[in-house]
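input
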Amino acid sequence: MIFGVDVGGTKTLAVICDMQGHVLAQSQFGEGNWEGIGLDAAAILYAETVETMCGLAGVSPSHIQASAWGIAGLDWPSDDSRLRPLIQPLFSEIPLTLVNDAFLPLRAGARHPYGVGVIAGTGSTVAGIGIDGTRARNFGLGSMWGGFDGASHLAYEAMRKASDAYFGRRVPTLLSPALCAWGGVKSIAELAEGVSRGEIVKDIATFAPTVMMLAQQGDTAAYEIIADAAHILADNALAVIQSLHMAAHDFDVVLAGGVAVHATDDFYRLLRTAIHQEAPHASIVRLQHKPVVGALLLAFDSVVDVIDDAVVQRVRTEV
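output
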């Protein structure tokens, strides 16, 4: 039996399948990021997850042959020493793979066990697995550390460009009336007042799809925003690619998260062009499967040299 878990900041998804890839049980649990709920609560949740899943599958934990967990909050080597002692005792002596949850979309969507995952949603992380199995990722800490700030980046840049247009520092942009409509106000000045005073409390990230749409329609300012976002993400992807010595190889760059998956054709073209400058054989693909599929495949990787294509397809279809 193979046990895969996607431990997120809002929910935890777990799946058990047999060695042929047939799903025996899958279920959802609560928030599992230890940074949010604490180690004690995380330990309780992890134990509950294993006990409940084994009960649903009608197996004992001793029947599990390998397990992989993608965990939000497993960001540094020191985190492994915090979390592994909470999970390893739940099983017998089996291969246990613990990774940051950013590695799951990569493994779920790539053709090979190696490649790069570019996650851009509420936040952003870039993770890669080399041909030799080495793993690497960026800090995932936003623009302060060279990364991408996710959907909010697009929205805040829209506000900045609308402000420039309001003060005559650039030509008018369709972002301005769109922002006013989004905020339910009549002018950019009124929007700025409402946001600064906390009177407009809508999640700024919800404006990101409008930025993409206006860029596709030809608005110059919106296009500049998505071009900047594409180049930031490409730079981070290329840093991981170079660190894993993969630039000359054929591999997949798997895009996940709302910004990346629902981006416009222009965004994909810009991202692809930038990555191909240094990694010409990379294929840019959108994630089509649940990230927890990546946890199952990582667990398979730990016990078989090559996963049969039929098993991979079965896992991706049944989860």
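quick obs: The first strand starts at residue 2 and ends at 7.
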